[in-house]
Amino acid sequence: MPGLPTMLSIISSFALFVLFLALQGRPAFEAVRLVFEGAFGSSFAWENTLQRAAPLMLTALCVALPARAGLIIIGGEGALVLGGLAAATLPLWLTGLPPLATLIAMGLVAMLVGGIWIGLNGWLRQKRGLNETIGSLLLSYIAIALFNHLVEGPLRDPSSLNKPSTVGLDYPLMIGVISEDSFRVHWGLVAGIIACVMAWVLVRHSVKGFALDVVGGNVRAARMLGLPVNRLVIFTCVLGGAAAGLAGMYEVSAVQGSANASLIVGYGISGILVSFAARHNPLAIILCATLVGGIEASGSLLQRRLDLPDATTLILQGLLFTNLLAWEALVGRITGWRIALEEHANKVKNAEVQHG
Amino acid sequence: MSDLDRRKFLRLASIIGIAAAMPFSIARAADKPLVVGFVYVGARDDFGYNQAHAQAASIIRSMPNVTVVEEENVPETSAVQQAMEAMIRQDGAELIFATSFGYFDPHVLRVAQRYPAVRFAHCGGLWDASKHPENVGSFFGYIDEGQYLNGVVAGHMSKSKRLGFIAAKPVAQVLRNINAFTLGARSVDPEITTTVIFTGDWSLPVREAEAANGLIDQGCDVLTCHVDGPKVIVETAERRGVMSCGYHASQAALAPNGYLTGAEWNWETPYRAHVEAAQKGQAMNNFLRGGLAEGFVKTSDYGTNVSAAAREQADQIKAAMIAGEFTLFKGPLNDNKGNVVLAEGESLGQTDVALEQMDYLVEGVRGDI
Known about the structure:
A: 76% helix, 2% strand, B: alpha/beta, Rossmann fold, 2 domains, seven-stranded mixed sheet
């Protein structure tokens, strides 16, 4: 059962969370109840949760897609900020188009920039033998430094005095919420879900997805079969980067209205957690992003009702991640034991038959 | 602490429930507690910007008929919109203090449009009557007065005649503080220079420590700063045996030997004004500013090692500032590239918006924007 480690880790993380709070003399069960109330307890809580989950779905894909080909990419943050910056500056060069066309162009340029950035990681790994995990992390730092330099220097709107930003988007270029009255979540959520479904079709129901699994499972076998390994690896990196870049575009056009330092708040980092929790399955990413978004949303209620510090939800997220890794290792081992036991039982049975 | 708040909350929730059930209590009852929300961008115990706000919030908490709800570490993203909306919808907040500069546009403006009956007081934003909603107000303090006094004391105490300033970003508010500090020091001795290092962001403790060590190695013997949490800088200065001036809140406890004085916020004054206006149902005060005279900023008590001459001169200038007889930025004033910023006879009063668009470093500052 593929979801077993995730289920077990959710249960054990909440158990440890209760223990942790109880040991400090805090109302533990009340806190857990508030986590659920703050995340899923009302329509407002759902809006809050899904709004936070939307960018995580896209940044998680930046980890999940390369992971299908066996790469651990953790630099989605860099693709997100550069994608957002590209989207924010495009309308300055590209004027005169109708708003919808400009928005589509912004989305495309954000995906292009994000794709190039993570694609560069794939290229460096395949062609230059650079470890992609370290490489993506370092490239992400470079991206953030580049972003800061451009936003505070050449691309800065002179009227943004105490918070350097690019020139603000015109009102028609701001993406609104899905429904003003009943569902106040911006359209990035829809984009995230569509991207996850498309990624799922790609990895599960296409020839390319099968080829990716072969590359990720055994790269030598893939080469023996004559699969274009380099091209496949770089392809997943480009797609992942494009997803993160798109997340940046939505942050700019649905939330911030310009590119500024508020894009660098760790969506790319949370995406790593989401992707691992989902075991790199694109459909499971939708659920896991909602869960992580929910935990973040509930932090607000925990602080206001119980006076717990903000770090409480970080602890819950950390517990979730470590438990996940622990159960992953443990479930793998349990399966190993089971196979060994079954083999032993079969041997005994065979021996009995022979003797019989 | 937590139990008390929970009980308070339950009491509040039942009152709201009863109030909602009774159609005749639609008008604001005088004894109904006012729910005030505070949103902070960092930790409430950061020995700096957020702590200064949280300290004042705890005073507001003790006011009669007020319930305070707080949320810390809220980034300047849609998260702050959600946080403010949650305070309004889940706790019934009627007045929200959004304490970080970056909360204003678009976050506070958007939520304020959606909830016209709730008051939003933002720290630092420039409220503009022509385009911003009526239920939004901005407040800020002229803390450069405190930085000038920091400079005066530092100027007296420095032996190397070199001061160090660790700054986050070269934005107007920060430049104004660097310049005020330098002008204060050079009023004591025109030989003094201030070396400035920009770290690049509001909270980068590792880089702040590196910058502090770098400045001390260059011979600076008094450090001050404009970053969100001065803790690391003041601690590093103390460990290396040099002096420091505080910022945002008092860091005296971190440096018993080297702490000279500090420029502190006193947010209690604007907070109280907004809370009282809300309780009495008065119109929103959209634009609230003040310095030492109005009680928006204050200075830390002098450290034990501060000389009598330094105390005397700083106290004199402080008294003149409070009396409104002191002009901080006046000609002749050059920037550090030799251009004339203010000619002889020209001067800028504290309320002048030109000061909020400052884009230069004055003569005597070593560093580039």
